[in-house]
Design brief:
Number of strands: 4
Strand content: under 5%
Bound molecules: zinc ion
Shape: globular
Distance between the termini: 45 Å
Number of helices: 15
Helix content: 55-70%
Length: 339
């Protein structure tokens, strides 16, 4: 279990007086999620491209942290979704390498137990990212089917039924996207993808990287709050083109985590130079680059989920989204059940 607080010396030690790790702090999470929504291209449905949708997703971007403390079971199950502890050799906590992870958390846990660890100790941010994207993709698939069926329906009662379900799906999309956006944002904090998550720890340290147990909270919370604004992010993301990786969500997630991982040493170098103090230009530039990377990836993952949803299937009996949109299939039974 990862706790950010006063440790008992070793990096793996159980914390006393633990405090939660918040990824980017309230401000960082809110503006990352909100700015990403404001940058969605016109191909996305109009209900997502409103200031109100951006505001709601921005606020929900904090929900993964806000709901911490709900209870022991809740925390034990959800807290490890906020991070993944990579060793310097890119293995996950001494288990499989990040680019060779099994497809499910159950299989990941089995692999971790084989090296005397568990998914709960290693963190499963990788799986949180993919699971949330898959949820968004099927949300979008349902929305496409409902919107098409609503437009095609000639019976007013049935048209109203489709419209009501579409509106419910829009609420779900805002919720699911907003909640998941938290984890997309967490990922670009290098301290969320490394065993060196709060000080370098009990590892070879020829460059004398800090063992301060305040670096995590100081960098992600106070420093970001005081040095990164919505405008900084909006300006920065304009320079990052939408990226279609032409790959699977699993491959894209590996790339995304490794992009953050390669910033672990630069972060510690900056800390050695005293960069994470008010007014330091290098520290500010680093924080903006990392948070803007989250904005761009969130934008791109939403676009990816949307385009991919056109070839998804929904309901039972299963129907193809494409067949419904082409008017070849009546989705009513698939959507509302035949029982
Ligand atoms: Zn988090």
């Amino acid at each position: 279990m990862r706790k950010i607080g006063l440790t008992l010396g070793l990096v793996l030690a159980t914390a006393v007086a633990p405090q939660a790790a918040f990824g980017w702090g309230a401000t960082g999470h809110r503006i990352i999620s909100e700015v990403a929504m404001a940058t969605l291209p016109a191909e996305l449905p109009a209900f997502l491209r409103t200031p109100d949708a951006a505001r709601m997703v921005g606020e929900l971007g904090r929900e993964g942290d806000r709901s911490k403390g709900a209870g022991r079971l809740h925390g034990a199950e959800r807290d490890p979704g906020h991070y993944i502890d990579l060793y310097d050799d890119q293995t996950v906590f001494g288990g499989p390498k990040i680019d060779n992870l099994p497809p499910t958390r159950e299989e990941f846990d089995t692999a971790m137990r084989a090296v005397g660890q568990s998914q709960y100790k290693a963190g499963y941010l990788y799986y949180e990212l993919i699971e949330g994207w898959l949820q968004l993709r099927i949300d979008f698939a349902y929305w496409r089917v409902l919107a098409a069926a609503e437009a095609a329906a000639t019976d007013p009662a049935r048209k109203a039924e489709y419209a009501a379900d579409r509106k419910l799906r829009e609420m779900l999309i805002v919720r699911d996207l907003g909640y998941w956006s938290h984890f997309v944002a967490d990922t670009t904090n290098p301290l969320h993808v490394s065993i060196h998550f709060n000080g370098w720890g009990n590892f070879p340290n020829p460059n004398n990287y800090t063992n301060s147990n305040t670096i995590h909270a100081r960098f992600e919370g106070e420093f970001v709050r005081n040095n990164v604004t919505s405008k900084d992010l909006a300006d920065a993301v304009k320079t990052i083109a939408v990226r279609d990786c032409a790959c699977t969500i699993e491959q894209r997630t590996v790339q995304y985590i490794l992009d953050s991982f390669k910033n672990v040493v630069p972060l510690y170098e900056l800390e050695n130079k005293g960069a994470f103090v008010p007014g330091n230009a290098a520290g500010k530039a680093f924080a903006i680059e990392r948070t803007a990377a989250a904005v761009a990836e969130l934008r791109d993952l939403v676009v990816f989920a949307w385009t991919s949803s056109a070839t998804a299937t929904v309901g039972y009996p299963i129907v193809n989204v494409a067949d419904v949109m082409a008017g070849k299939v009546d989705p009513y039974v698939a959507l509302f059940g035949a029982d």
